[in-house]
Amino acid sequence: MGGAGSSSSSTMENLQNTLPPKQVIIPDESATGQVVLNEAAAKQSQINSEYAAKLDRYNKQFFTTEDIRKQQSLGDETRLTQRTTGQEERATLAETGNQQRALRRVEGQERRAEAAEEGAQTRGIERVKGQETRAAVAEGGSQTRATERVKGQEDRGRIAETGRQTRGTRRVEGQEIRATDLQKEQFRRYKEARDYAQAQSAYRA
């Protein structure tokens, strides 16, 4: 209130100073009140304007800060999302790599197991084949030796029999020759004895 009264007095003095000289003015309470009201309204309007400007600056600063915070938050969320996405992608790639390596490892193990089994079966087949071949060769050799043994025995038996038969034949032939020679010799001796006896008889006669 004191401030308002000082302002009114000053306003009135200013009004009085602007009036023409030598002119008596009777103060009008209604006019003074209106001036005071106008000044108060102007002051309030100025205060409102300053407050509105200050509020506008505050709002601009607030919303600017909020926008910055929003952008920062959005950036943080975006980076967090990208970080999470990257982590998940890396984890997915790592798991994919792990699974692929595990699959390749299992495939290699299976291929090696198949190769080992095929080798074992091939070696088994070749082993049995070799055994059968050796058995066949051994049996063939045994049979050949047995055949040759029997053949040798038969050949030796045939040769022995041939020798026996030949010797028997030669023995009989020798016997026959000796018998023949003996008969010839006996006949010769008989003839000689006869001839001699005939000769003696003729000589005595």
Give a written overview of the molecule.
The protein is mainly alpha-helical and 205 residues long. The protein has helices at residues 2-18, 29-204. Helix 1 crosses helix 2. The termini are far apart. The chain is rod-shaped, with a radius of gyration of 80 Å.
Low-confidence segments, given as residue ranges, are 1-12, 14-27
* Beta-strand segment tally: 0
User: How far is the N terminus from the C terminus?
Assistant: 239 Å
| Fraction in helix | over 70%
Which secondary structure elements does this structure contain, and how are they paired or packed?
Layout (H helix, E strand, L loop, with lengths): L1 H17 L10 H176 L1
List descriptors.
2 helices, single chain, disordered N terminus, 205 residues, mainly alpha
Short description:
The chain has 205 residues and is mostly helical. 94% of the residues lie in helices and 0% in strands.
